[in-house]
Amino acid sequence: MNKGIIFDLDGTLWDSSEQVVAAWNMALAKRPETDLQITVADMTSYMGKTMEAIAELMMPEIEVSIRLDIMKDCCNMEHEYLHTHSGILYPKLEETLKKLSESYKLIIVSNCQDGYIQTFFHCNPQIEKYFADFECPGRTGKGKGENIKLVIERNNLDKAVYIGDTQGDCDASDYAGVPFIHAAYGFGKIDREGPKITAFEQAIEAAAEIME
Fold first, then answer.
1. How many angstroms separate the CA atoms of 4 and 161, rounded?
2. Each residue of 76-108: b (16+ CB within 10 Å) or e?
3. Which one of 23, 30, 86, 90 is separated from 193 by 20 to 30 angstroms, measured CA to CA?
4. For residue 134, what are the CA distances in angstroms to 151, 154, 157, 177?
5. What is the DSSP secondary structure assignment for residue 84, as one 8-state letter?
6. Which residues contact 190 (CB under 8 A, 6 or more apart)?
7. Tally of CA atoms within 13 A in the half-sphere of 76 that contains its CB
8. Rounded to 5 degrees, what are φ and ψ at 183?
């Protein structure tokens, strides 16, 4: 049986909130349409949302086309900044991924722009080899639930589980029809009881309980 574990990225595999805030504030400072500067608390509240949803939350008073253009500048600056200022991997991430990869295909599905997951791999080349695939709305134009279904089909998975930290991750799992494991050490809470991990290495046992 072909089994896979699909991961969210921010708040599940790493924390890049401080680095992304720094990059976005540099981009925002160059735009005359706004004097907005964001905080890490702001960024935490955006985690798990699409770029369009974040733009609306950040700049509801600005015309849609302009705020999306501002977000494009923020994302471009983010990629550039993260290449030299990496986010922080959660403890025991590499050794846990190595162990999981012996039994499962590992995949990332995140609500991010195209290039962000690639930047994550650039910053952490030692762990890229453990992942068989990745997807995001920046490449497909699809929501997270649809992208989970897409990678399951593309990788011929008979059984899969999604691990993420936000309510949006939980909802996407429901949409895709796969079990959800809450990464409770991350940025979000969910509205129901269910499987959860409080440290990344617990994913080994949590996944086994669901899929074996």
1. 7
2. ebbbebbeeebbebbeebeebbeebbeebbbbb
3. 90
4. 8, 11, 14, 18
5. T
6. 166, 167, 169, 170, 180, 182
7. 9
8. -80, 85
State how far the Cα of 175 lies from the Cα of 150, in Å rounded to an integer.
12
pLDDT in tens, 55-106: 999 999 999 999 999 999 999 999 999 999 999 999 999 999 999 999 999 9
Q: Per the structure block, which two tokens stand in for 69?
A: 């253009």
Cβ neighbors of 84 (< 8 A, separation 6 or more) are none
pTM: 0.92
Q: Is 148 exposed, middle or buried (0-12, 13-18, 19+ CB in 10 A)?
A: buried
Give me the amino acid identity at 28. Answer: L
Tokens of 17: 């909130």
Q: Which tens digit of pLDDT belongs to each residue from 1-17?
A: 899 999 999 999 999 99
Question: Which residue in 166, 164, 172, 95 sits closest to 126, CA to CA?
Answer: 95
Residues 160-192 have pLDDT tens digits of 999 999 999 999 999 999 999 999 999 989 999
pLDDT at 45 over 90: no
Per-residue burial over 12-24, b = 16 or more CB atoms within 10 Å of its CB, e = otherwise: bbbbbbebbbebb
